[in-house]
Amino acid sequence: MKLSKTEEELMNRLWELKKAFMKDLLEAYPEPKPAATTISTLLKRMQDKDFVGYELIGNMREYFPLVSKENYFAKHINSLIKNFFNDSPGQFASFFTEKANLSERELKELKAIIDNQLNQKN
After folding, report:
1. Which pLDDT does position 101 carry in this prediction?
2. What's the distance, Cα to Cα, between the start and end of the chain in Å?
């Protein structure tokens, strides 16, 4: 399941904080801050999608992510590769390296990452 752009924005704040009360989440936003009711609605939708859980502490809810940022991002990258690049990581890598306007240093860093992964598989 996917989060909306505003849900992703809130989720990023929750990933950073790891655990947070409503006031903590509101404080994490720059001015102009969203309304508390907006954050509350987003949290409810995210709970319904099983992205956010909470623990009741007194009469306050302390929210926490149920999905790691890594897992969320990996799922979307895999979906992107499947849906837009014919399920071919090679096509995705080719497109990314050609269109992202990477410097020689950045390309060498990517090559080192790939070489490292290849060494781990051997």
Report:
1. 85
2. 34
